[in-house]
Amino acid sequence: MMPLWRHARVIAAVCCLGAVAVSCNPQTSAKPNPPADAVVQTKADSKSLERAARRAYDGAPPVIPHGNLGASCVACHSAKGIQFGEMGFAPPMPHETSPGKGPGKFARCTQCHVFKETDEVFVENSFAGLQQDLRRGSRQNPLAPPVMPHPVFMRENCAACHTGPAAREEIRCTHPERGRCNQCHVAPVTQTEF
Amino acid sequence: MSDIPRRTFLKVLGTTSAASCGIAAFSCDDRREAEKIAATQAALTPEQLTWGKAPCRYCGTGCGVEVGVKDNRIMAVRGDTASPVNRGLLCVKGYHLPAMLYGKDRLLYPQLRQPDGSLKRISWDEALDLVASKFKGALEEHGPESVAVYGSGQWTIFDGYTALKWVKGGMRSNNLEPNARLCMASAVMGFVTQFQSDEPMGCYDDFEFGDDFIFWGHNVAEMHPVLFSRILETKRKKPGSRIIDLATRRTATSDYADMYIEFRPGGDLALANGILHLLVKNDQVDHAFIKENLVFKRGIEDPAVIGYGCYEDQADRYVFKEEMKDASFEELKTFLADYTPERVSELSGVSVAQIEALAKVYGDNKRGTVSTWCMGVNQHYRGTWMNNLITDLHLITGKIGRPGSNPFSMTGQPAACGTVREVGTLCNRLPSDRVVTNPEHRAETEKIWGLPEGTISEKPGYHAVDMFRAMQRGDIKCMWIQTTNPWVTLPNLHRFERKPGDGRFIVVSDIYPTPTTEVADLILPAAGWVEREGMFGNSERRTQHWDKLIDPPGEAKEDAWQMIQVARRMGMGHLFPWPEDDWHRPMFEEYRSFTVGNGKDLATYEQLRATRGLVWPVVDGKETRYRYAAGFDPYVKKKSGVHFYKAKGYGEKAAFWLRPYNPPPESPDTEFPYWLCTGRVLEHWHTGSMTRRVKELQQAVPSAYVEINRADAQDLGLKDGDWVRVTSRRGELKLRAKVDGRGKPPRGSLFIPFFDEHLLVNVLTLDAMCNISYQPDYKKCAVKIERA
User: Fold this and answer.
1) Among this protein's residues, is B93 annotated catalytic?
2) Hey, are the CB atoms on B241 and A102 less than 8 Å from each other?
3) What is the gyration radius of the CA atoms in chain A, in angstroms?
4) Which of A117, A184, B209, B784 would be a feasible disulfide site paired with B403, CB 3.0-4.6 Å?
């Protein structure tokens, strides 16, 4: 029951990608894709560790890494984010911020993102979560744009993580000025059939 | 940044960086902690996991989640974008579901309490033999009234059906109760008294179709967050849609309300009557609808006759006999004459202007009105009455049974509807709207079960609070508690203190140690959530199935299996004649036969496996979004309007109940000058036995606190975080004060959440209850507060 528009978008993007690939480089189009598990694992740098420490698993909403500032979250986590000098960068949000007159479904940030009031735990827990997938998206041919290696639901704003000060080296976009990412990069269909 | 001076900002960051990884400084400690976490995480891609579907384990919303499994362990979840309930979104509890199963103190083996109080590991065979012999012994020596099973709205349909068949069809006792008696019994009795069939007519689509959303005494933003998100999205897309928050304290919900209306505890009874008064007076009622679809009823109304089930004379075996009388629209007019806006304002604390505004909302027939409620209305000394009154507002205006206009009861537990209300794991109920007091219903049940006529007892068993009172007295000798934690949740907890070895035998099945396992004689390890196959039924009548996705740890077993094994050992194996390795499907098909043709038709097992759940009645494979509504419900043959076809006793019409105001059982006085309300917080679910073991949730809200109004705190010389002692006539509790937290009680009012097993608010609460549903009132009693 995936919304129709999303199907349409994926299909359109696939067609477009196919057409580009065929016209540019017809002889390589039959080549197999790089294996899906061609994972580029970087060393556990501070940024990776910091990111992991804020999440139960990759895909979980991060806990809020600062105290309650008593202000609206979007005041700082705005469309472009804000640099607070040496204190760090308040990145924009990867999901939509409900434009319009009313609050919208993502209005209540603390529904998913919670503050951390203590370091204490109630009982130790042995849960081991999925780590971030730093694989580069697979390409149809060496010149083709990679497909997105992660689902895009609630990560529609690619710029939040792939551009700006919050973007890590490994996933930083080389051409942010192009704007419409899904013109060339298609998202995996994550809908599982059960 | 302009709002926050830089110094303050730094200070906030400084004070929290020890507790979290600060924005700028990622300290050595943080790095060590992060490395520890990273070491436990596996570098896998989502495609390398096997994904399965399941409804969320926690609340009654029933959000769909996809569960990612690798090597028999859950590594991630994601909101199921194919689920019509949540459309991909979850709340913080849902996102952190996987860790819930991996607390280091999972119960792994059956353990028997020794005379010195210690626990000894025993085998399943020994454990099951022991339970069977204890139940058998009690039955033989003291009869069916001496045994009891206390279950849960978190039981799967399989667990509930097994318990029902074993207790009522096998042991011939009706002492089967769920914790849901503490949670939605008033909603059951509300729907049953008005439609002679439980559960709402509307569905979650109402949150898009409606214009005005009126929350009667519940904090939707925190307790049903994903549904609240849907309503907020409607507010964005549909200009003019409004949220009206009727409450006894300001909460996160109030922040988004177009109208916040604060009433005095118990004042809701007067308020609803006040709105009815104005609707009738201004003739904003739907006369054609009334003529075609309503009958008028009233019952006993004198508080002196009814009582509250808590004082000495009613403290044991509180059973109230309602006497139903016919009434009429004319009689209603006379009845409502007393509820002028001025008098209602006095009783409820709501201003006359606000009462008039509410009447205008309900009276506007061009706008869709959705009234929702949960624990504020259900955990109420007149909970059934309040349920009746809210539905009355919709009946008298004809705002019912159409998209965007319905009374809608939100459920607290994931299967309070699916298991408790539909299977009927209550002391007076049988599957699919049947009751033990009706000979036809008993006969139908006995026929489906293949049992001789007269097997099922016609006498209702003890309701939950009475069940524990009976155990305290010694009338119940043997009790099995599953998937619930009564030694945290029962009101007036001090009444139920017990020591093992007092002649009773208590078995507790759970996944973690709790205050309830502490008083158990035998502890059995349970399989949780997706460690077994299951089905839940959510607030909107949606039945959802999940497959077993991982193995339970140690020797943990699912609740239903535990009961089936004991039944077999008691010579009741004929009740469960299915093969050991494939009993879920045939059991469900047998249960389903109770529902087909009864207006509560469930989908087939195969259909439920293949879908994200279906909303019953499911007829010819199609779900029914709106019950009783022409064009939606296949049971309705009319071309338009509604048909309350289940209410045979009312001539297939709905009953409008005249329900008066009654004062609360205990109100603040000079000695105990504060109201006390209890409830939940977003991050913790019920008694916290699951959510407190999840790091992110526990660290967000580590322990219980008492919310107090800033002005009251100033009068008492208290500031946020100070230790205080809260005392009621029943007990006292020392905890920290919270001033200007997420909830802001009005002056003279306190709030304490109940998730903290070390700070038990229920030692303070009063065990008063609704006279019809026997659901206790956790929302109002009198206390005092002082610096500790």
Assistant:
1) yes
2) yes
3) 19
4) B209
Told to judge if B690 belongs to the known catalytic residues of this protein, a careful annotator would answer no
Q: A124 to chain B: which residues are within 8 Å by CB?
A: 103-104
**Cα–Cα distance for residue pair B592/B589, rounded to 1 Å:** 5
A112 to B612: CB separation less than 8 angstroms, yes or no = no
Report ipTM for this prediction: 0.90
Q: Which residue, among B83, B95, B256, B703, would best test binding to A if mutated, counting the most A CBs under 10 Å from its CB?
A: B95
- CB of A189 within 8 Å of a chain B CB? The answer is no
Helices (H), B165-320: 185-195, 206-209, 220-223, 225-237, 267-281, 287-293, 303-306
Alpha helices in B450-548 (DSSP H): 464-473, 486-489, 515-518
Paired with B642 in beta bridges are B629
CA distances from residue B70 to B28, B44, B73, B122, B752 in whole angstroms, order as listed: 32, 9, 5, 31, 40
Reduced DSSP (H G I as helix, E B as strand, rest coil) percent helix, strand, coil of chain A, to 5: 30, 5, 70
Residue B183 is a catalytic residue = yes
Q: Which of A59, A71, A134 sits opposite B76 (nearest CB)?
A: A59
List phi, psi (to 5°) of B760.
-85, 105
3-class SS string, B577-605: CCCCCCCHHHHHHHHHHHHCCCCCCCCCH
d(CA B118, CA B204): 49
Mutate to test the interface with A, among B23, B67, B609 (most CBs of A within 10 A): B23
Nearest CA-CA distance, residue A23 and chain B, Å? 30
Distance CA B337, CA B326 (A): 19
Q: How does pLDDT run across A99-141, given as a tens digit for each residue?
A: 667 788 998 999 999 999 999 999 999 999 998 777 667 788 8
Looking at residue B596, its pLDDT comes to 97
B227 touches chain A (CB under 8 A): no
Asked if residues B162 and B431 have their Cβ atoms less than 8 Å apart, the reply is no
Choose the mutation target among A89, A109, A192 for the interface with B, i.e. most B CBs under 10 Å. Answer: A192
Let me know: does B251 contact B337? Beta carbons within 8 Å: no
Task: Write the single-letter amino acid at B79.
Answer: G
Structure tokens at B347: 């009783």
Is A119 within 8 Å of chain B by CB?
A: yes
- Block residue for tokens 């002056």: B747
- Token pair in block for residue B50: 């096997």
Cβ of A5 under 8 Å from any chain B Cβ?
Answer: no
The angle subtended at Cα B388 by Cα B337 and Cα B750, nearest 5°, is 90
**Chain B residues within 8 A of A119 when measuring between CB atoms:** 18-19, 699
pLDDT digits (tens, 9 = 90+) for B413-464: 999 999 999 999 999 999 999 999 999 999 999 999 999 999 999 999 999 9
